[in-house]
Write a structure and sequence with these properties.
Layout: H1 2-11, H2 32-35, H3 47-62, E1 75-80, H4 83-97, E2 107-112, H5 125-128, H6 130-134, H7 142-154, H8 156-165, H9 173-190, H10 201-218, H11 226-243, E3 252-254, H12 257-267, H13 289-292, E4 299-305, E5 323-329, E6 332-333, E7 347-348, H14 349-363, H15 366-370
Length: 385
């Protein structure tokens, strides 16, 4: 983005038409080098505010699960070792536990390094899966490769429109795409952005789909490493759900959106019969990044214990489903495609555990697929209260 603004400045041109505001537009960051990749702190959509509000909402929803002991143990929280992820966890904890959560030991935040030596014992498997990082064609960079193809399909008409208004300068696909990104980033910081008015409604639908493509192919269902990376956290969480309240009533992990996506791929929560095309925007698709991993996105696994329904009362005691798993994605219930027979589109616990085990067999071994040594940790070990 900064490179684009510098090129415009160096051209000594006075932009016209939809871009005329750029001539005296102030960049939305006073110190880009310090604020880049940090949690936003201003505007109605600030990351700090969103994290605090999420903590408050979830406390309202789950306060009955908090310890009522007169001498409660601190609740363990986990965050990957990125400043904005850590700050998100802290602001969330302030909303959930109160402003003095740290000093009164209501919770303890554990920082999990984002280093390649952790093997499977990590919150950020994209940093530890060696082949994923080294495979330049179908690994981490595959999302950008596929995004570049779709940009070349939808941006030429936008480029032509801009050049008609400003024939002395031609913008690349990457530069136009960064203009669309600036709309979102500036809106987060300031509450609105003139960049948003540069593009048509159809342009924005295409940009939304472009974001689908990069996540889908970078670490999601369209990447051959995605599911095996995501199965690590999914399996650890399934084990906690199997143990039930004895393992702990609440578990909170804070990561990047790129670490949530693999877990959803592992669970196959948003299945598709075909891969996302890069030549056009399909009319219908299950994978929508704006709904799956928006800013402040979250996925919640709930273990429910319910009264036995009338239709189940005739079964043998061991066959009566009482415990269920329900999945909440960004405050919306999402049913597992093959299991939603329980209350509120939930899945009987034992069926859920069977699905996770079966997916683990289908996906394969993390160490083998990722090319890490057998001496490397093979599972997550730190998630416990």
């Amino acid at each position: 983005m900064l490179a684009l603004l510098q090129r415009i400045k160096d051209s000594n041109l006075t932009l016209k038409g939809q871009l005329d505001f750029v001539n005296d537009w102030p960049y939305f960051s006073l110190d880009p080098s310090a604020e880049h990749d940090q949690l936003t702190t201003t505007g109605p959509y600030a990351g700090t505010l969103s994290a605090f509000a999420a903590g408050t909402r979830l406390r309202t929803r789950y306060r009955n699960l908090l310890s009522t002991s007169s001498v409660p143990r601190p609740l363990n929280l986990w965050a990957s070792d990125s400043n904005r992820v850590i700050e998100t966890a802290r602001y969330f904890a302030t909303g959930f536990f109160g402003p003095d959560w740290d000093s009164r030991r209501a919770a303890k935040l554990h920082i999990i390094p984002e280093t390649p030596d952790l093997g499977a014992d990590t919150l950020t498997p994209g940093d530890t899966c060696l082949k994923y990082r080294e495979d330049l064609l179908t690994g981490h960079d595959y999302g950008l490769i596929q995004l570049t193809k779709f940009r070349s399909a939808y941006l030429p008409p936008v480029s032509a429109r801009m050049q008609k208004q400003n024939p002395a300068i031609k913008f690349t696909d990457g530069e136009i795409y960064s203009m669309q990104e600036m709309c979102g980033f500036e809106t987060l910081v300031r509450g609105s952005s003139p960049w948003c008015n540069v593009f048509t409604h159809d342009d924005w639908l295409n940009f939304e789909y472009a974001r689908d493509i990069i996540h889908y192919y970078r670490a999601g269902p369209g990447n051959k490493y995605g599911a095996v990376m995501g199965w690590l956290w999914l399996n650890a969480t399934a084990n906690l759900l199997a143990e039930g309240p004895d393992a702990g009533r609440l578990f909170f992990s804070f990561v990047h959106d790129g670490d949530i996506v693999p877990m959803l791929a592992a669970l196959d929560l948003f299945p598709s019969n075909t891969q996302l095309p890069v030549t056009h925007r399909p009319k219908d698709r299950a994978w929508k990044t704006s709904q799956i991993v928006p800013m402040n996105g979250r996925v919640i696994f709930e273990r429910l214990t319910c009264d036995i329904s009338a239709k189940d009362r005739g079964r043998e005691p061991r066959q009566r489903p009482r415990d269920y798993v329900r999945i909440n994605v960004n405050d919306g219930i999402v049913a597992l495609p093959t299991c939603s027979s329980g209350p509120g589109f939930s899945c009987p616990l034992q069926d859920f555990l069977s699905i996770v085990r079966r997916r683990g067999k289908d996906i394969g071994d993390f160490r083998k697929i990722c090319g890490v040594g057998e001496e490397s940790p093979g599972r997550i070990t730190f998630l416990h209260q």
